[in-house]
Design a protein that fits this description.
By secondary structure, the protein is mainly β. Helix content is 0%, strand content 29%. The mean pLDDT is 88. The chain binds zinc ion.
């Protein structure tokens, strides 16, 4: 169930699909900058098989650079 526990900005981040606007709360990963509050990423229902990159946003809706993230 969505939002089964209170959202904690210290440990949680929101994923939102840019197409259908479905969202869910997931645990933050260590490489995620503290300023990131929302990650826009295509959900499985909207995934058409193309490559989709994610976009990071701060609490103010400003895009956060992913340059600091380590490349695999
Ligand atoms: Zn979707």
């Amino acid at each position: 169930m969505l939002m089964a526990k209170p959202f904690d900005i210290a440990t949680d981040v929101t994923l939102e699909c840019p197409r259908c606007r479905a969202y869910k709360t997931v645990a933050r990963t260590p490489e995620l900058p503290a300023s990131v509050r929302l990650i826009e990423i295509i959900c499985p229902d909207c995934d058409d098989g193309d490559f989709h990159s994610e976009t990071w946003y701060s609490a103010l809706g400003v895009e956060v650079s992913q340059d600091a993230r380590a490349e695999p």
